[in-house]
Amino acid sequence: MEEPDNHQMDRNQNRNETKRTSIGAPSTALAYLDPHYWDERFASEEHYEWFKDYSHFRHLIQQHVKPNSSVLELGCGNSQLCEELYKDGITEITCIDLSAVAVEKMLKRLLSKGYKEIKVLEADMLDLPFSNECFDVVIEKGTMDVLFVDGGDPWNPRPATVNKVMAMLEGVQRVLKPDGIFISITFGQPHFRRPFFSAPGFTWSIEWKTFGDGFHYFFYILKKGQRSSDSNGVKDNVSTTTISLFQDELENEDYIFRTNIDEMESQN
Ligand SMILES: C[S@@+](CC[C@H](N)C(=O)[O-])C[C@H]1O[C@@H](n2cnc3c(N)ncnc32)[C@H](O)[C@@H]1O
C-alpha cells in the first residue's frame, strides 16, 4: 500500500492538533488491525472522535433511539458517544472494546463524571458475550471499518474479510431484540456495505442517511425483522452515486483510513 501524500497528512494533522497524541496516526492503515496499536495509543490518548462527534448525527440518533432503549456500542475506544447518549437520557448503555486499555480508561472516565450506570467490557465484536435478543439498539462508529483495512478490493473483498464482517453482523443480529435496530456510522458507501447488510439470513431493512459537509459520512439504520420477502431490504436512501472525496473535509485519520479504499477503487 502506498503511503498517503505527506503534505495532505500534515494539513490534516494540523487541523486536529488539540487531539494529537504521542502515538497518533499510524503510517499504514493496517495498524488498525493490531490490538497492540490500540492499547499503546489509548494509553496516551484521552479522546479522539472518529467520523465526527455526536453533534453531527444527534438528530438521526434521536429518531431511532428512545430513552428506554438498551444500547450496545461496539468498539467505543475513547469516544464520547456513550456520554452524549447518556446526557440525552439514554442510560442503559453497554460499551465494548477489544482494547483492555480503552476499557480501563473509559471506566475511569465515566466514573469520574458520575456515569456509573454505563457498563464497559473488554470483548470482541466478532464473538459477542451476550445472550440472544437482549439489546434494542446496537451501534458502531468506525469500528466495522477496521475489518476492511486489509480487505483488498472493496468490490470483491478477501474471503477472510468477508468472514469477519459476517461474524460481526451475525452477532449483532443475534443480540438484537426481534424489533431491534443496528446503527452503523461509517464512510463505507452503500455499494460496498449493502452486499453485507442484505446477505441471506439477515432480516433487517436497510436505510441510510448522510451527514457532514463536503465529504458525507453514512448513517445506516438496519431494522431487524423488517425485510420483506420480495425485496433486498432497501427501504430508503439518499443518492450517493455521485459522491466524490473531498479529502480536505476529512478529519486527519479518516483520511488515512480511507486511503486504502481509494487506492483499491482507482484500480477498478
Ligand atoms: C476506529 S476506532 C473507533 C472508536 C470509536 N467508535 C469512535 O467513534 O471514535 C475502532 C475501535 O474499535 C476497537 N476494535 C477493533 N477491533 C475490535 C473488535 N474486534 N472488537 C471490539 N472492538 C474492536 C479498537 O480498539 C478501537 O477502539
Secondary structure elements and pairings:
Layout: H1 6-15, H2 35-44, H3 58-64, E1 70-74, H4 81-87, E2 92-97, H5 100-112, E3 119-122, E4 135-141, H6 159-175, E5 176-186, H7 190-197, E6 205-211, E7 217-223, E8 234-236, H8 252-266
Parallel strand pairs: 1-2, 1-4, 2-3, 4-5, 6-8
Antiparallel strand pairs: 5-7, 6-7
The structure holds S-adenosylmethionine.
Textual characterization of the structure:
Residues 66-188 form the Methyltransferase domain. This is EEF1A lysine methyltransferase 4. Belongs to the methyltransferase superfamily. Keywords: Methyltransferase, Phosphoprotein, S-adenosyl-L-methionine, Transferase. The chain has 268 residues and is α/β, with parallel strands linked by helices. The chain has one domain: Rossmann fold (3-Layer(aba) Sandwich), CATH 3.40.50. Helix content is 32%, strand content 19%. Strands 3-2-1-4-5-7-6-8 form an eight-stranded mixed β-sheet, with helices on both faces. The chain is globular. The two termini are 16 Å apart. 38% of the residues are buried. S-adenosylmethionine (SAM) binds at residues 38, 49-50, 74-77, 79, 96-99, 102, 124-126, 141-143, 146.
In short:
With 268 residues, the chain is of the alpha/beta class. 32% of the residues lie in helices and 19% in strands.
Amount of helix: 25-40%
CATH class, named Alpha Beta
Q: Rg to the nearest angstrom?
A: 18 Å
Q: Name the CATH superfamily classification.
A: Vaccinia Virus protein VP39
Report how far apart the termini are: 16 Å
Low-confidence stretches: 1-21, 236-249, 261-268
Q: What class do helices, strands and sheet pairing give? A: alpha/beta
Number of strands: 8
| CATH architecture verdict | 3-Layer(aba) Sandwich
The average pLDDT value, as a whole number, equals: 82
How many structural domains in the coordinates? 1
Q: Would you give the CATH topology? A: Rossmann fold
- How would you spell out the order of helices and strands? HHHEHEHEEHEHEEEH
What ligands does this structure carry? S-adenosylmethionine
Helix count, DSSP H or I runs of 4 or more residues: 8
Query: How does the overall form come out from the CA principal axes?
Result: globular
Relative strand content: 15-25%
